[in-house]
Target: Acetate kinase
Amino acid sequence: MTARMTARTTVTTPTREGSAPVTASRVLVLNSGSSSVKYQLLDMADRSRLAVGLVERIGEETSRLVHERLVGADGAAGAGGDKRERLGPIADHEAALGAVAQELAADGMGLDSPELAAVGHRVVHGGTRFTQPTVVDDEVLAEIRSLVPLAPLHNPANVTGIEVARRLRADVPQVAVFDTAFHSTMPEYVARYAIDAATADKYSIRRYGFHGTSHAYVSRATAALLGKPVEDVNVIVLHLGNGASASAVRGGVCVETSMGLTPLEGLVMGTRSGDLDPAVVFHLARVGGLSVDEIDSLLNKKSGLLGMCGDNDMREVLRRAGEGDEAAATAFASYVHRLKKYIGAYSAVLGRVDAVTFTAGVGENAHQVREAAVDGLAELGLALDLEANAVRSPEPRLVSAEYARVAVAVVPTDEELEIATQAYALVTQ
Ligand SMILES: Nc1ncnc2c1ncn2[C@@H]1O[C@H](COP(=O)(O)OP(=O)(O)O)[C@@H](O)[C@H]1O
Ligand SMILES: CC(=O)OP(=O)(O)O
Ligand SMILES: [Mg+2]
Model:
């Protein structure tokens, strides 16, 4: 990406007065979740962050917007920032994005700025069609909308984000960057489920995989950390946030990932079950009398750590387990056992593993999870330097023992920077 960036052409937009064009190098990135919007404004001329923020608990009485300006009020780097918080109900995503636009405008960095080159949107499901970042027009938006049944928790919010941003700034390209894109290289025999082929084709049933923007960024950053070209590095990436997924990346190309048709399969997550016998669904319907929607909600929103022990935040699970709480200890043990299984499985898939990399909220911060997941895997070449592993740091770093054959790394993910980079590259190419 960096190489592509240096050869950039410029985007020109008219000034507000409609006179001479100015060079636009800012990208606003929107990551809209079901009840939250995370955003960042970046200047791609030097890849710096100008403002970051979060709106959470959208639709509740207790909504909260936190906005942080990271540069001087006139956009000058290093001139000191400002952090503001707004509490009180924000009814929906439309209102949330309106509030975000207001905060940016208050800092002189509003959506009407002639310096805005693009808005980059995280879109979770891109189906089989969207394997590249894509400028959104009516037809593309309709296709993203048609994928809502495959990502009901995520795509509706992504669609709203695009609609609102388009309305606020119709002349600036809206670029969709898809979670599924990086995984589109999986071999057909990996992507296919072993079900009737005609049925699978009719209903677009296959493994798509998610968090691809993070898996792509982190696998490249791991190669950089090892000081090797990405083509020479085989890595298992463990993205452990609220949603969690593993991927096996051979020489920069994804060959397998744990999430499937939807972001429900695979690892134990904050509120999602991950892998289970599909017959659990039939049993709940036939014997439990639950509707399909009730089972969907149970497995997506009331399972995982939350379902097993009542807390979905790993910090809380660790605290309770440390105090001897049995349900929390079992939930933690299930979480790391599933991780261990995927590390083993993907070691077999890759044949040779150069690194196992932990990322996202849990992966970057919970040293206990890393320690427990790697424990006992010496035969696979994995061993930690426990002291290095326990150190907190925002930097990419190695935490493996010096003698270990396979590196264990902690690499902070940066989906927003990756989305901005891809969006900017597309509009300036
Ligand atoms: N210090 C910490 N120790 C353990 N877990 C943490 C810590 N900080 C954050 N987390 C976990 O990270 C999760 C959020 O990760 P994040 O990548 O931000 O998720 P998402 O992007 O899916 O919202 C939280 O639910 C919490 O469990
Ligand atoms: C796809 C997915 O699971 O995303 P998130 O972790 O943001 O919920
Ligand atoms: Mg995330």
Q: What stands out?
A: The first strand starts at residue 11 and ends at 13. The CA atoms of residues 271 and 303 lie 5 Å apart. Residues 33, 124, 154, 179, 210-211, 241-243, 263 surround acetylphosphate (ligand 2) (CB under 6 Å). The radius of gyration is 22 Å.
